[in-house]
Amino acid sequence: MLYKNVVILKNDATGDLVHSMKAIYNIAGDKEVDKITIFISTMSKKFDFLLNDSKIKIKTLNYNLSILEKIRLFYYFLTNKIEDAYILAPKKFYYFLPIFFFKTKFYAICVDSINNYKRPSNFLRKFLYKYEINDRSAIFKRDSAISLQNKLTSSASFAKKEIKITPEISENLKKYLPKEYFYFHLRKKRLDELGWGISELTLLFNEFLKYSRNVVLTKDIEIDENTKILKENFNSFDFKTLKHLNKSKKIIFFDNIDGQDLYNVIRLSKKVIAFHGMVPSLASINKVPVLELFHCNINNWSDYRNYRNAFYEFKPRYKGHDFIIPQKDIKKSLKKMNYSLKK
Predict the structure, then answer these.
(1) Higher model confidence: residue 295 or residue 299?
(2) Over the stretch 183-221, which tens digit does the pLDDT of each residue have?
(3) Contacts of 202 (CB under 8 A, 6+ apart)
(4) Which residues contact 71 (CB under 8 A, 6 or more apart)?
(5) What is the model's pLDDT at position 159?
(6) What is the mean pLDDT of residues 138-159?
(7) Cys bridge to 153: 26, 169, 171, 202, which one at CB 3.0-4.6 A?
(8) What are the DSSP calls for 74-122, one per residue?
(9) What residue ranges define each of the domains in the chain, with the CATH number in brackets?
């Protein structure tokens, strides 16, 4: 039996890595595959525990490849016998590799868009062994990113029909994580666009407390004024400084939380409420109930097309996933949320 050496190119954002997990485990489940080297982005490195398989070896690249990284990747293909390669991150550079390494079978996700845009060109697609097209020009319901990648790897046997990742819980998390809670992730850009400040957020969190004993908050890693505001108004624990502030409230803010700790907060929550992006994607791994806030700023037909495509491409599909389009008026948004919060 031939034992294959496989490369997977996946230096995307963390949410995109989650959308590729089923495909990756499909490949790992192929009995003919002996070794898998996955190139992920540096921004996803803290979530490499999601790829826990004895066949898998992880290497990192920047999200945007430098000239030196392109040379190193080319050299890696040149000096290693690689039977199969999967282009799951549609970077332009990757589509030129099949021209030079014609003995390797390249499987790829290709992109079509409006104005006859194609990545790669029809000429370069001729060098691919198999590909699936992510048609972003479509104005109708279409396959999700997960479905397309699953089709691409359908020749491999399934490693796990249901993927569940349950890493060990850290001592700090055991100490401060409530037993029952709703989890909310703050994204400053989205909050600013909606005009939601501390008064709106307080209304939001008090509504959550009608349906859950506690609320756990996290925010994006960047330092901004919201960090100080959250620590002034709620309980908090900083995973970097290990400083705990107790204000005897049912709301706790976890600052500087990342990787395995963040994943466990999402995984163990009663319900996740978060803007479209990485957090709902991580929640989908274990099918945690989610209310996704799909914020839209539509000014023209092109905006509508882009949002609609993003919705179908990345929306998790399982029974516990709900979504709303939030409004600037927090009270109107709360009315929309209530149907999901009551579940």
Answers:
(1) 295
(2) 999 999 899 999 999 999 999 999 999 999 999 999 987
(3) 233
(4) none
(5) 46
(6) 77
(7) 26
(8) HHHHHHS--SEEEE-S--GGGGGHHHH-TTSEEEEEEEEETTTEEES-H
(9) 4-152 (3.40.50.2000), 171-341 (3.40.50.2000)
Residue labelled with tokens 């990113």: 145
Q: What are the CA-CA distances from residue 301 to residues 55, 80, 111, 139, 308 (Å)?
A: 46, 47, 20, 11, 10
Residue 320 has pLDDT above 50, yes or no: yes
DSSP H helices, the chain, are 14-19, 21-28, 67-79, 97-100, 122-125, 145-152, 171-176, 188-194, 198-208, 225-233, 259-267, 278-285, 301-314, 330-341
Q: For residue 262, how many other CB atoms are within 10 A of its CB?
A: 22
199: its two tokens: 């008064």
Q: What is the pLDDT of residues 260-283, one digit of tens each?
A: 999 999 999 999 999 988 999 999
Number of Cβ within 10 Å of residue 327's Cβ equals 14
CA–CA dist 53, 107 (Å, integer): 21
Altogether, the residues listed in the chain come to a count of 343
What are the tokens at 289? 């109930």
pTM given for the model: 0.89
